[in-house]
Amino acid sequence: MNAWMMFDPQAREDTPAVTELNAWLQDWAKRLDFRLMDERRCLPPHLVLAVGNRGLLGMQVPEAYGGRLCLSNFELLRVQRQLGAIDLTLAFFVGLNNGLGIRPIQRFAAPAIKERYLPQLASGRMLAAFALTERAAGSNPLGMAACAQREGDLFRLDGTKSWSGSAAWAGVISVFARHIDDQGRDLGYLGLCVDAEQQGMHQGSEAMTLGLKGMVQNQLHFDAALVSQDRVLGSAFAGLAVASDTMGFGRLGIAATCVGGLWRCVQLMIRYSTRRSLGGHHLWDHEHTQRVVDDALCAATAIGGWVDHLALRLDQGLPDAPPEVLAATKWLASEVLGEVSDSALQMLGARGYCDNNPIGQLWRDARITRLFEGPSETLAAFIGQRVLEQPGTVIAYLDQTVHGEIIRARILEWTAEEVSVPRLSAGTLRLGECVAWLMLSSQPLDEFCRRWVDYRLERALHAWERTRLPVRKMNYSSDWATIDTGIHDCAQPGEERKIDPLLASQVSA
Ligand SMILES: Cc1cc2nc3c(=O)[nH]c(=O)nc-3n(C[C@H](O)[C@H](O)[C@H](O)COP(=O)(O)OP(=O)(O)OC[C@H]3O[C@@H](n4cnc5c(N)ncnc54)[C@H](O)[C@@H]3O)c2cc1C
What we know:
This protein has helices at about 5, 15-30, 35-40, 45-55, 75-85, 90-110, 110-120, 240-275, 285-315, 325-345, 350-355, 360-365, 375-390, 390-400, 405-415, 425-440, 445-465; strands spanning about 130, 145-150, 155-165, 170-180, 185-195, 200-205, 215-230, 230-235. It is α+β, with helices and mostly antiparallel strands. It has three domains: about 5-125, Acyl-CoA dehydrogenase/oxidase, N-terminal domain (Butyryl-Coa Dehydrogenase, subunit A, domain 1, Orthogonal Bundle), CATH 1.10.540; about 130-240, Butyryl-CoA Dehydrogenase, subunit A, domain 2, CATH 2.40.110; about 240-465, Butyryl-CoA Dehydrogenase, subunit A, domain 3 (Up-down Bundle). Strands 1, 2, 3, 4, 5, 6, 7 and 8 form an eight-stranded mixed sheet that branches. Flavin-adenine dinucleotide binds near residues 163, 368, 377 and 378.
């Protein structure tokens, strides 16, 4: 029985397809060495082949395009949760391929492009990636500099993308760029489905990340790459709609993965505290220990239930949850996983800090969830801003939830107070956090989870209240960047990585 069925009597049952897949995953994962993958900074080929052969790399590809599993959203996210409980790197590798990789092609590519790529992607013979971020355009994707310009029947693509997950391993990549006319004027944004063999595209350096080390995140350079126009994703002027759809669903996937990570933390804390003897009693016997575990249990069950609810809504064909709601699930799940993985590491003492045990790796891997696909601050500010400008969208969603009516009144009360707040202020960001907790409290929760959510909402309200106090005056000066703290950057020459010019295939100028 899964942990979530054991501790959460209200948990929804898995379908037979999910039960079978998750049982296979649990058994198969016993043969994997995630620590070695982390140290080698590489997922082994047998892992990629195994998940591909089981259909896990293309879980929602329709049968007509070679899909094997054809899972519903609820099923997909349940498998994603299981993967998160096993290992976050594995989970994000699989999740990225299904979400950021395949979804834009499956939903927005022309039929011939789908026919060309989806069967290979569904069977795991090919990987897919998503390239939106640039060094100067991360939390502000509209600031991207990459541009695409029509040249006859083709689009000429120029620019550099950064931190693109699985890009160097992928056979096809969804790339987003400014669409400009021949005068350089903006026509909107464009998404292109680019083949790995595309002339003018070069794979760039890999990022040495803190976590998810077994995966690759690398730069991509486009230098007058001529891409045929049948590779446009959706409308040639509305590529951002494609990126938003992909990232919105991806946020729900991240939340489901975080729920799996939360259950893994619960498991490790219970194992350790009930076995660790402190001379006559166990660590578990301390009330504090049980409270820490209970908080983690509340988080896992409450957020898990919310993700299930949203997935089922999608499956029932109800209108897609608004982007504010998807942003809120990701914000909440990733923030809470950050806290809970830290509490688990603390509870495990020195064993938590040693890399032969799994919590340190989980803690490092979990850290990314607060940063990618919208860092926490930008997501919270987005929720706050939308609620101030268009509260109707969130309210319409809440109206369909169990406790929505009480909550609707609170949102209207808050937004009435904040009408004069500048939209980019800390107040807007903190308001967004309060709204996220409020959304969670609209769900059916048992008495323990309700108390936990109420407490967290109170904390969020205090943080919001504090933004009404003035912040210390710090007059920005460009000299700050050169302040001498006595700490110096490493001046060692480092490793020579580039091939010697005398041995290179081309003599550099
Ligand atoms: C492991 C990994 C995998 C990734 N995978 C992909 C991928 O597959 N495809 C892809 O396109 N990208 C990917 N990314 C990129 C990722 O999505 C970006 O790093 C992320 O969007 C943040 O952008 P940035 O790093 O430029 O941060 P910045 O934009 O420099 O932001 C820095 C900080 O400023 C904060 N901030 C911004 N605005 C506000 C505000 N209004 N109020 C308060 N604080 C604010 C942010 O929250 C953030 O904490 C990946 C990154 C990593 C590390």
